[in-house]
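Postdoc handover notes: sequence design on the structure in folder B. Input tokens:
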């Protein structure tokens, strides 16, 4: 299964080559061209001579860590790759992706029996004070397996839950990669007027870096970012801050300054005509995903943003619904099929 292969392949920000190999192997039989660049982006295309040019991006990088120091006792200290929530780290299982293979470890935590009353009330959330224990007895032994600079992820496991839900670290945003390349696969069997580029972008978590370079290269007329968005259907949500978005109720279409009005008009019409469930995600400013970078590439791109509802974002137990992925693929495929060579997205 493509999604499971993505989720089980490590891709901490800046170390995405393993997952890009998975994407390349999967999409090559369906694409007219598959290219990579020096930044690490993977770009696949069908109908390259078509018009207009459509880019569908999902970022393949996931949150992680990088080995920063190995103590004399053999404990591993790390720095964050992306916006890690320190509150979910203590007691978690991790994989260090060394040149010799995966080295398994745990983030240690002082037992509750030995904690002072103050420590029990206020847990230290400084990553610099947390450590990974791989079972080594000394720095020398640890260095036989681990090097400074090695990337680290949470244990790459996938859990299948009730109601067709899936939980794993890295759903942000491997679900976006899945949707982008599944859309390309579906369209490879169709007669298209437009050119469609599916892009697995890198380093989104540290500044949308892969989207900036790949959008410049693809030079699309229309660009989509497929990313996760916050669901409100769990006890930890804030009803005053979040839109009413639920797992399994369809992909969320962003409305606001980062979304082209004509692009969204087509999306809404298609949802109604094709009976594709969708939700609204109003965002009043620039998005924090790849659509932000795509929109302002070169002289500007008509952008849309499709959000896959996600619970527990930026933790090792993110949850998404398969039906939302399937409906996102349907919507994007129908959008591309609806385009004509003279489709125009200028607003005046």
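Designed sequence:
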């Amino acid at each position: 299964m493509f999604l499971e292969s993505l989720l089980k392949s490590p891709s901490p920000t800046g170390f995405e080559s393993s997952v890009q190999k998975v994407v390349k192997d999967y999409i090559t039989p369906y694409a007219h061209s598959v290219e990579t660049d020096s930044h690490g982006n993977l770009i696949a295309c069908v109908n390259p001579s078509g018009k207009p040019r459509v880019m569908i991006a999902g970022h393949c990088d996931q949150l992680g860590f990088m080995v920063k120091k190995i103590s004399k006792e053999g404990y591993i200290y790390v720095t964050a790759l992306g916006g890690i929530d320190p509150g979910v780290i203590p007691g978690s299982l991790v994989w260090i992706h060394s040149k010799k293979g995966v080295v398994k470890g745990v983030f240690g935590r002082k037992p509750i029996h030995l904690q002072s009353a103050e420590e029990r009330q206020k847990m230290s959330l400084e990553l610099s004070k947390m450590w990974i224990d791989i079972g080594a007895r000394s720095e020398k032994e640890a260095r036989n397996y681990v090097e400074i600079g090695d990337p680290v992820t949470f244990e790459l496991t996938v859990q299948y839950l009730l109601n067709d839900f899936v939980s794993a670290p890295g759903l942000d945003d491997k679900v976006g990669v899945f949707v982008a390349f599944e859309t390309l696969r579906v369209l490879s069997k169709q007669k298209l007027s437009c050119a469609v580029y599916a892009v697995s972008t890198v380093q989104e978590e540290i500044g949308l870096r892969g989207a900036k370079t790949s959008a410049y290269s693809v030079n699309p007329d229309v660009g989509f970012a497929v990313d996760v968005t916050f669901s409100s259907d769990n006890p930890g949500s804030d009803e005053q801050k979040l839109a009413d978005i639920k797992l399994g109720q369809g992909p969320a279409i962003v409305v606001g300054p980062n979304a082209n009005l004509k692009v969204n008009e087509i999306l809404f019409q298609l949802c109604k005509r094709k009976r594709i469930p969708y939700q609204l995600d109003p965002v009043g400013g620039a998005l924090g995903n790849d659509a932000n970078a795509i929109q302002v590439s070169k002289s500007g791109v008509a952008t849309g943003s499709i959000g896959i509802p996600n619970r527990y974002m930026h933790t090792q137990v993110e949850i998404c619904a398969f039906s939302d992925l399937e409906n996102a693929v349907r919507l994007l495929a129908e959008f591309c099929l609806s385009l004509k060579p003279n489709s125009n997205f200028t607003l005046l």
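Context for whoever picks this up: The domain at 2-62+169-338 is CATH 3.40.630.10 (Aminopeptidase). Don't rerun without checking with the PI first.
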